[in-house]
Amino acid sequence: MLVIHENYSLKKLNTFRVEAYARWYVEVNTEDDLKELFADLRWQNQNRLILGGGSNMLFTTNFDGLVIRMNIQGIEHQITKDEVYVKSGAGEVWNNLVDYCVQSGFSGMENLSLIPGSVGASPVQNIGAYGVELKDVFYSCHAFEIETGLIKIFDKSDCQFSYRDSVFKTGFKNKYIITEVTYKLSQIFIPNTSYGAIQQELDKRGIIHPTVKNISQVVSFIRVSKLPDPSAIGNAGSFFKNPIIEVNKFRQLESTFPDIVHYPASEGYIKISAGWLIEQCGWKGKIIGNVGTWKNQALVLVNHGNATGNELFKLSIIIIEDVKKRFGIILQREVNII
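Above: the chain sequence. Below: its structure as tokens.
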């Protein structure tokens, strides 16, 4: 039977470790739990927030509604010739799933190692790192339709994936709750080492023919060296999206800032490193009261103690204004603001 808690503290359930309370809170362990929950008409029209690992949100106030913590577990796989289909419950920790695949020798997720969060959030956000996005390995997902109580299956085209975005953040926002995700991986390994410092680190280690495990270990090493541990200092990883601009605008910026860090995007567009932009504005490692940016990566905002969500949000406003003033680029937040 489901237990509904009232005035529930969310401090330990968000990686920024800021205090906020949910008017109501419930944990869901099965799809049947969701059906039971929404059979009660009280929750049909109530404000709702789906919570996974709490790694991609900033609470600036208490949540006056129902927080649903997704805790559906389980990982299994099926092999069809060289293809591998891995199915996971939405409540699994993302990196536990990546480890499962890496240890099994399944290729495709290794560049996504050590990303914080849960499996259920991965298609919502179209998470990505080091030249790979979730859409590259996504096959399908099951999602509970709140209005009807039915489970619908979404394939890749249904999800309308784009950079850090999906239909679950746009047209279907607050209409579905993802319960499980299936990924399509491969037993044939083609290493992707072109992004960031992956190849450089492999060279340092003398690895000429890397394995899936080698790539995962190198990506994890790079992430740990740049990003703070949420269990030690409150943060949500990358706070801003890397902006994507037209080639013509990029050429203008490059003429003034020849060292600008950039990556290829879709045709006619260039992706700019948000971390580089913020660092050029003097923000790397800067501390203001209880908040600041991380000493090794300016893209990460951190809670240095007892910061409120509003303090962190105000810091993000200042950074956005500084980057706009210097580069004419408006940064977009990757973290969801509650």
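Residues 135 and 161 are 7 Å apart (CA to CA).
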